[in-house]
Design goal:
Layout: E1 5-8, E2 17-23, E3 28-45, E4 52-53, E5 66-73, H1 82-93, E6 97-98, E7 103-104, E8 107-111, H2 126-136, E9 153-154, E10 164-165, E11 167-175, E12 178-186, E13 191-193, E14 200-202, E15 205-206, E16 211-212, H3 215-219, E17 232-239, H4 243-260, E18 261-262, E19 272-281, H5 285-305
Parallel strand pairs: 5-8, 17-19
Antiparallel strand pairs: 1-11, 2-3, 3-5, 3-19, 4-8, 6-7, 9-10, 11-12, 12-17, 13-14, 13-18, 15-16
Helix pairs in contact: 1-2, 4-5
């Protein structure tokens, strides 16, 4: 039996559109994943300092079956305001949960902390979220210093002076018609490593010695864990999944975080993964989980490989 697996774009998944908006001077932005017709969804929050919206709705015991967008943003808890822009956009388009007297778009969201990198007084807001939705109509994804990854940084376990540039990354696969894609904004406290070789790509870096600082060495020097972190991502698939299965896939996908980030899920990270299912084809949950882990790990690697040096932060390309 020949298995046909090929690389695709996350926007090749039917019914999905993705858009970003950023303020490069302020070093912040947001990225939206829209499913106008609704997507079954789940979430798994592992980090100790999350900033999230509407995650309780995704509990399988609760009523709402589908969501219409996931908004990933910078700006810490302030950045959750970008979700309101997606609400406005979807309402104008006539999409949402039908409550008879009104259609209510269901927009889930998560934010990362980038206030220490650019202008802390400028954060993703309703207007920026709305513009990201407008930009999603082009369905073009730029990786690196864009959207929610604009002000992202990694390798902050010894403080910002040793940090490097993070960013926005994506990757997707098609396995005999089963499509699974990842989109992630990488702003980790830890280092980003190659998901296969475990070789350091970006992280705690000593500029004077032009060398990475290994985790074992870094642990002996930690005095206070910094709080300006969090990796937030979303898996999109055309597999037929219910809410409980989406939640399980989100849980499995955190293995992708663990493969590409070290350390991960710290008390200073708000690491969160959403899963959106467009319910097109039958598929085994475990296969979806395996593919999700792979595409997420590669998307995290892509996020730092596509990033450019900015805001005083060196990038993978520089070293």
């Amino acid at each position: 039996m020949v298995i046909d697996m090929k690389e695709i774009k996350i926007t090749d998944i039917k019914g999905i559109q993705v858009g970003s908006c950023e303020d490069s001077q302020a070093a912040t932005g947001c990225t939206v994943i829209i499913a106008k017709d609704g997507a079954t969804a789940g979430v798994d929050v592992r980090g100790g300092a999350p900033a999230t919206r509407e995650t309780d709705l995704l509990n399988p015991k609760n009523m709402v079956a589908k969501i219409h967008a996931v908004m990933l943003s910078g700006g810490s808890a302030y950045g959750l305001d970008a979700c309101s822009g997606a609400m406005q956009y979807l309402e104008e388009k006539g999409y949402g949960f039908d409550m008879q007297i009104a259609k209510v778009p269901i927009v889930c969201g998560a934010s990362l902390f980038d206030l220490a990198v650019g202008d802390p007084n400028i954060r993703p807001n309703k207007q920026m979220g709305y513009q990201a939705c407008i930009n999603s109509e082009k369905n073009e994804i730029q990786e690196g210093n864009y959207g929610a990854g604009c002000g992202a940084s990694v390798g902050k376990i010894l403080g910002p002076q040793y940090a490097m540039k993070g960013g926005l990354g994506t990757y997707a696969l098609d396995l005999d018609g089963l499509q699974v894609g990842a989109l992630v904004a990488v702003n980790a406290c830890g280092n980003v490593v190659d998901y296969q070789s475990r070789k350091m790509l970006a992280g705690t870096y000593d500029r004077q010695k032009h060398a990475f600082i290994g985790l074992d060495t870094a642990m002996s020097r930690i005095r206070q864990t910094p709080g300006a972190n969090t990796t937030i991502g979303c898996i999109v698939t055309n597999a037929k999944l219910d809410k409980a299965q989406c939640t399980k896939v989100a849980s499995i996908t955190h293995n992708g975080y663990a493969l590409a980030i070290s350390p991960v899920h710290t008390m200073s990270d708000g690491d969160t993964i959403f899963v959106m299912s467009t319910n097109e084809i039958e598929a085994e949950v475990d296969i979806v989980g395996i593919l999700s882990t792979k595409v997420m790990a590669i998307a995290i690697n892509n996020a730092v490989k596509k990033a450019k040096s900015a805001y005083g932060l060196l990038a993978y390309k520089d070293i």
